[in-house]
Amino acid sequence: MIISYAEHSPAIDTDAWVAPDATVCGNVVIGAGCRIMHGARLVAEAGGSIRIGRNCIVLENAVIRATGRHPCTFGDHCVVGPNSHVVGAEINDEVFVATGAAVFHGAHIGRGSEVRINGIVHLRTRLEPGTTVPIGWIAVGDPAQLLPPDQHEAIWLHQKPLDFPGFVYGVDRSVPNVMQKITAGLSAALGVHRAESV
Q1: What DSSP string runs through the chain?
Q2: pLDDT, tens only, 125-142
Q3: Which end of the chain has the smaller Cβ count within 10 Å, N or C?
Q4: Which tens digit of pLDDT belongs to each residue from 65-91?
């Protein structure tokens, strides 16, 4: 489904293919030779933009999102695996984001890197070119520290100063009812515009 959002319609190269049950919404540009497979969701909301380079493949049920504060870009020859999630990140050429992986706001993934199955690249994290995040591991920080999932305290030591609520939603983590403020802000941003099928 191709959907306009806030007067922005997707721009899909004539040499790209989008499955009929995929969703491409808003200010999204898809380059030549790309394949957006069944159930994939590319959603640029609240002033955000998504740019997909040439010859990229977004596999089944992957989600790529952008917001006004966090655009999302992909270089050429990238693969986004099934059930993965990428939001507001900069992905260089020839990057592989494997099945179930997650890449968060403000992350930068250098050319030729791999985020393997269920790997996580946390917000504001920078992966140098050619970096591999092992299966199920977490990359956090700039420069990235690669940590196994059983190292919660070490991960949190690097993650806390990255300030997820402040960086992503502009909300101070220490204020009372922080989740109420986040959901109210999201509802307001998403409710401003109505999506329309093209």
Answers
A1: -EEEETTB--EE-TT-EE-TT-EEESSEEE-TT-EE-TT-EEEE-TT--EEE-SS-EE-TT-EEEE-SS--EEE-SS-EE-TT-EEES-EE-TT-EE-TT-EE-TT-EE-TT-EE-TT-EE-TT-EEPTT-EE-TT-EEETTTTEEE-TT-HHHHHHHHGGG-HHHHHH---TTSTTHHHHHHHHHHHHHHSS-EEE-
A2: 999 999 999 999 999 999
A3: C
A4: 998 899 999 999 999 999 999 999 999
